[in-house]
Amino acid sequence: MKKKYNIGKFFVYIILIGGVGITVFPFIWMILTSFKSQIESIKIPITIFPKEWLIKNYFAVFKAIPFGRMYLNTIINAVVIVSVQLLFCSMAAYAFARLKFPGKNVIFTILLSVLMIPSSFFILPQYQIIQGLGLLNSLPALFLPNLFSIFGTFLLRQFFKSLPDSLEDAARIDGCNRFMIYYKIMLPLVKSGLVALGILTLRFAWNDLMWPLIVNTSEQKMTLAAGLSSLQGQYVTDYPLMMAGAVMSVAPLLILFAIFQEQFIEGIALSGVKG
Fold first, then answer.
1. In which element (H, E) is residue 10 found?
2. What is the C-alpha to C-alpha distance for residues 20 and 16, in angstroms, rounded to an integer?
3. 58 and 246 in contact (C-beta within 8 Å)?
4. N or C terminus: fewer CB in 10 A for the chain?
């Protein structure tokens, strides 16, 4: 019996290791390719490790495109979207979870139904609004349509609903108003949910490609994802140059996830504690 258990455990480990390998391999290949020459990157048979580790690709990216400016645009876009979404979503989630007002469940159901509509359906009306405001080829055009998230509201609502009512009762006895209860009592208790939503929102804002390409045609207003896509030529693509830019692009996300991974996993795991 123990032998069968060990064999089953062995196969589980093999599957997990294989899954990790499939997930990590593209990142390793991206890093290795960023140090190769153009010839090595398209050579057949494929060369895994570069014969000469070239760091010039990392400097060449800044000459090929305004990489520094695109990095700044991406940071501004991501910071605005994450901070405003955390504020708006947490306030809306608290209202739907803790307040009592007519039609609360109906309104929340209608909001959830919007999640069933493909996001591509909203591109044209959002573009017309941005165009009407005269914001094409500007930084506000990047983040204005993404300042609120229904998914984020649903995620944080689950956390607020899991908190006991006695906390609010005790806060009212101590003289706290509704905003103080939200800001000083409830918000610190859903920190893991805020971290999880923040990382998910940051990943979306950092990697968004379609919307920046639609509203911004100027390289000075592009984000990293849109800028790196411009490195792909019609006939020839400098893959080491593109991979070097991609490595520098994903590095901040990997560092942030490594720092906040415990809170992120806890936030995702506890998001369905109470519906």
1. helix 2-34
2. 6
3. no
4. N
How does DSSP assign 152-196, residue by residue?
A: HHHHHHHHHHHS-HHHHHHHHHTT--HHHIIIIIIHHHTHHHHHH
Query: DSSP label at 51?
Result: S
Domain 60-270: top CATH class: mainly alpha
Q: Kindly report the CA angle at 107 between 103 and 108, in degrees rounded to 5?
A: 120
- Buried (b) or exposed (e) across 234-265, using 16+ Cβ within 10 A? eeeebbbbbbbbbbbbbeeeeebeeebeebbe
> Cβ contacts of residue 200 below 8 Å, gap of 6+?
152
pTM across the whole model: 0.85
pLDDT in tens, the chain (275 residues): 455 557 778 888 889 898 888 888 988 999 999 998 888 888 888 888 888 888 999 999 999 889 999 999 999 999 999 999 999 999 999 999 988 888 888 999 999 898 888 888 889 999 999 999 999 999 999 999 999 999 999 999 988 988 888 888 888 888 888 889 898 889 988 888 898 899 899 999 999 989 999 998 888 889 999 988 888 765 677 889 999 999 999 988 888 888 887 777 776 666 554 44
What proportions of the chain, in percent to the nearest 5, are helix, strand and coil? Answer: 75, 0, 25
Both tokens of residue 130? 């941005």
Q: Where are the domains of the chain?
A: 60-270
Q: Which amino acid is at 163?
A: L
Q: At what angle do helices 150-162 and 191-207 cross, to 10 degrees?
A: 170
